[in-house]
Specification:
alpha+beta; about 50% helix; 4 strands
């Protein structure tokens, strides 16, 4: 097991245990607020994993940053990493040609795209950030990205309400 995978497994397990009350509260809240009872609390989306192997990514049916909490299950299960390229559909253009390099690592719950503007970034810039991460990642970079993720999410959320 690599240091990155060990870090992902231990970090993912610790976060799941620590955040389990929040996971349960969000699930109950989403279920209670659901206008369509047949849709459930989780949204399913097929994304390309390591080597391009598709898997079904689960997120909560909410627009808040809490939607990503179920991704920790994928981290513990080895389909995702705490830090990595943005998860994309297997048919996405960034998973082909030169961009196929991004499939040599697991997609991440967070990554350079998350701390650098996320949806405000042009596709080309996000693709460059992901490929730079793939080519140069190391555990120190992962720790820096993790440390900058919560403040980046908080800034964007605060800006929406200002």
């Amino acid at each position: 097991m690599t240091a990155k995978r060990t870090f992902d497994l231990m970090g993912g397990l610790a976060l799941l245990v620590l955040l389990s009350p929040l996971l349960a509260a969000v699930a109950v809240s989403v279920a209670a607020g659901s206008a369509s009872p047949g849709h459930g609390v989780l949204r399913r989306r097929t994304v390309a994993g390591l080597g391009g192997t598709p898997f079904t990514m689960l997120t909560f049916r909410t627009r808040s940053p809490l939607a990503a909490l179920p991704l920790l299950l994928h981290v513990v299960g080895g389909r995702m990493s705490l830090v990595g390229p943005c998860p994309l559909a297997p048919s996405h253009r960034e998973c082909t040609g030169e961009g196929r390099r991004r499939l040599s690592v697991r997609p991440g719950v967070t990554g350079p795209w998350q701390i650098s503007g996320r949806s405000d970034l042009p596709w080309e810039e996000r693709e460059l950030l992901d490929l730079h991460y793939v080519d140069h990642h190391w555990l120190g970079m992962d720790l820096e990205i993790l440390a900058r993720t919560l403040p980046a999410v908080h800034r964007r959320r605060a800006a929406r309400f200002a």
